[in-house]
């Protein structure tokens, strides 16, 4: 059997519910999508619960599913994925936190949780001032994210993620991180000492002297929350026997793919993670990667953004652009390619957030069994022959269609 | 997102197989059901395995599933549910038994397992004579059910449900309850002492003196069977974050809902648990409860009874009445309501008992994705977009449609 290459196109948040402003139909049902429909007509379709029926997936847990991992056994809190998303990819045993640059007064009361939404280059300079720190034998790594967001990674023996937040999540006194189980004392002490040092180092830092003069809230403390252990993930290339890469704009998706051992390709012009992303350039990058890699995951964030914003008309426009991207891929299909079009969750415009509805799925490759599904949308894909799958079943299905699955038994 | 309220309409035993007397069709396929069909046409449909494909559910295990519990991990024997069904709702650690009022001769041989189907007020008087008993430090609670049925609940330290029955299940000597595992000795001793005392207290009780005179079998012993531990159930309101109630006529359903922490509403005129139930009054009670509660489960026992009796014509009549009830609900729909019509199992008239066939399911709310299912029955619902669900997936699906699900991940 010829081993094929797999392209998984994840149209983030694409699935929807019946929209009031679209007469009870979904954007996918309303928009003309001749190319996505061509894949449905010539492929096999179904619907898919990323986690399980009715469960609202995060983008992190759903991508773990899409990469063939059981999310309930692998997902150990958001911290590590946020950290990995901004380039702090840890390893088993490391503990990571999401952090905010915040403003405290002299009595250590939080007066602005986001330090006036401080951003680069101030955050870069401030983070540089914390580098190279070791506390009680534990290496401390910090990295800034977008605006007031940052991540903290601790590395060393005897760490535990079972500690409470230093961030009070509201105005008021900075909290002491407390151990939540025996064996977490060291980590709590390190977190508290780190928070204290961030204040000591930053309170009179030139950046904050300048911000004071300009009347801006000082970014004078870094407050960790959401501790999580880096999961012990069997790297994707070893687990599935495929050289794998991802093309994505959003930090968290890159982080997940990085933690799972995929090569995260940098395509700055195509990967903005915003509505302005150049989908054709992204498809080009993914198809080009497929010359070197056995598996490429491509994430397009735009539909999710329009869902969160509650803009049916914007989502319609994004759907039409996705169809143009599908045309680009269709024109470049090769016999040894398996292509899947799907979503990581629904973000219905009338809900404005992720929901647990199943997402549409169409898989195309030369030589599969065609079914009766004629159009790629939430309703029609349910009439495809794939039925209703779980997210973590998709990768095995694709690998089997790619003649890459191993036999269980003789 | 607007949080919606959920009404789950459980039409007990509704699903069927092709009936000989109906030309191979099911009662749902034969009866005109324009209102149930309206819900199918405007909602999302599917079929559902309450436990798993081909497994015949009891009404107890299936309702646990419908309430979002994994029945294999929660269900620990029938005793606790029977006990709770007649008002003996215990707590973790309690052990409960189903019991029969029986007749024994002087050699302690059972001569009538049902004591001539003794009933109230005799059973009430006899049970009163047993109240307030403590045996070896264990509290003993007894309650009569319908006719010759009763329940026994033991409460105290060191109990185990791993004991054999005192009821021989046939004519012959009363059995000694035996411990079936180490640590069950105390419980077996308490059961045996309780059985002995029931005989001592009842053999010359005025009720039995009178029954002797009237030539009726004496109810002179209470024989426990089917020991079960009260499960450690995470109460529904805490587990799912919804204030919840049930409207039901059958004791066991009330018992299950009670054990799960739902408020069991008393609507005597509507909740007979029989064929004579006033379905409209029941729907009215359920809709009224929905003003105060986030979730209401409504159980209608009538279709199950006609299935057990093997009466296709009677089941057809019940189906038509269910459709009238559906009309009543349809006329009172509000935008913030999610309504599910389904069954807890099939009770096909030609089988005369529960079967493991999947049941039909239709969910309606404003703004969901419509599908191609046009009529509510065992065959057509299989062509809805929900596909084939598990019973314990239904509640998460309904909660997600009600915008009440929590996100797993970020």
Structure overview:
Helix content of chain A is 31%, strand content 21%. Chain A folds into 2 domains: 5-73 and 233-401, Alkaline Phosphatase, subunit A (3-Layer(aba) Sandwich); 82-229, no CATH class. In chain A, α2 (34-42) packs across α13 (312-331) and α3 (59-66) crosses α10 (251-259). The first copy, chain A, starts with a strand and ends in a 9-residue tail after the last helix. The first copy, chain A, is globular and about 70 Å long. The first copy, chain A, has 410 residues and is of the alpha/beta class. Chain A has helices at 27-30, 34-42, 59-66, 71-74, 79-85, 122-128, 185-202, 206-213, 236-240, 251-259, 279-289, 302-309, 312-331, 391-401; strands spanning 5-11, 44-49, 56-57, 95-104, 109-112, 134-135, 138-144, 149-155, 172-173, 221-229, 244-247, 263-265, 295-300, 337-342, 359-364, 387-390. Chains A and B meet through β3 and α3 of A and β15, α14 and β16 of B. β3 (56-57) of chain A pairs parallel with β16 (407-408) of chain B.
Provide a quick synopsis of the model.
Chain A has 410 residues and is of the alpha/beta class. The first copy, chain A, is built from 14 helices and 16 strands. The first copy, chain A, starts with a strand and ends in a 9-residue tail after the last helix.
Produce the secondary structure layout.
2 copies of one chain form a homodimer.
Chain A: E1 5-11, H1 27-30, H2 34-42, E2 44-49, E3 56-57, H3 59-66, H4 71-74, H5 79-85, E4 95-104, E5 109-112, H6 122-128, E6 134-135, E7 138-144, E8 149-155, E9 172-173, H7 185-202, H8 206-213, E10 221-229, H9 236-240, E11 244-247, H10 251-259, E12 263-265, H11 279-289, E13 295-300, H12 302-309, H13 312-331, E14 337-342, E15 359-364, E16 387-390, H14 391-401
Helix pairs in contact in A: 2-13, 3-10, 3-14, 5-10, 11-13, 12-13
């Amino acid at each position: 059997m010829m081993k094929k290459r797999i392209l998984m196109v994840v149209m983030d948040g694409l699935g929807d519910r019946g929209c009031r402003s679209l007469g009870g139909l979904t954007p996918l049902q309303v928009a003309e999508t001749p190319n996505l429909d061509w894949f449905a007509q010539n492929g096999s379709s179904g619907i898919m619960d990323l986690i399980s029926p009715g469960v609202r997936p995060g983008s992190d847990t759903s991508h773990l599913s899409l990469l063939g991992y059981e999310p309930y056994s692998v997902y150990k809190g958001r911290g590590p994925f946020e950290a990995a998303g901004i380039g702090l990819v840890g390893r088993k045993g490391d503990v990571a936190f999401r952090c905010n640059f915040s403003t405290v007064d002299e009595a250590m009361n939080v007066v602005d949780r986001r330090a006036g939404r401080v951003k680069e280059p101030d955050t870069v300079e401030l983070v540089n001032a914390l580098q190279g720190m070791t506390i009680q034998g534990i290496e401390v790594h910090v990295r800034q994210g977008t605006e007031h967001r940052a991540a903290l990674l601790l590395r060393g023996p005897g760490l535990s993620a079972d500690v409470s937040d230093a961030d009070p999540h509201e105005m008021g006194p900075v909290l002491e991180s407390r151990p939540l189980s025996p064996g977490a004392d060291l980590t709590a002490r390190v977190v508290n000492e780190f928070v204290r040092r961030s204040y000591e180092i930053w309170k009179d830092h030139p950046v904050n002297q300048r911000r004071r003069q300009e009347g801006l809230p000082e970014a004078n403390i870094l407050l960790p929350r959401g501790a999580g252990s880096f999961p012990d993930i069997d790297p994707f290339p070893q687990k599935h026997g495929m050289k794998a890469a991802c093309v994505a704009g959003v930090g968290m998706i890159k982080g997940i793919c990085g933690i799972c051992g995929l090569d995260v390709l940098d395509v700055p012009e195509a990967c903005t993670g915003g509505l302005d992303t150049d989908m054709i350039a992204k498809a080009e990058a993914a198809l080009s990667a497929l010359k070197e890699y056995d598996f490429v995951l491509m994430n397009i964030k735009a539909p999710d953004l329009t869902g969160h914003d509650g803009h049916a008309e914007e989502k319609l426009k994004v759907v039409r652009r996705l169809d143009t991207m599908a045309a680009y891929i269709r024109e470049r299909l090769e016999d040894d390619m398996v292509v899947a079009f799907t979503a990581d969750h629904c973000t219905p415009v009338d809900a404005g957030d992720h929901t647990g509805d199943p997402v549409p799925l169409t898989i195309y490759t030369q030589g599969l069994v065609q079914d009766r599904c004629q159009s790629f949308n939430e309703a029609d894909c349910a009439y495809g022959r794939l039925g209703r799958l779980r997210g973590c079943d998709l990768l095995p299905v694709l690998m089997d269609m790619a003649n890459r699955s191993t036999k269980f038994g003789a």
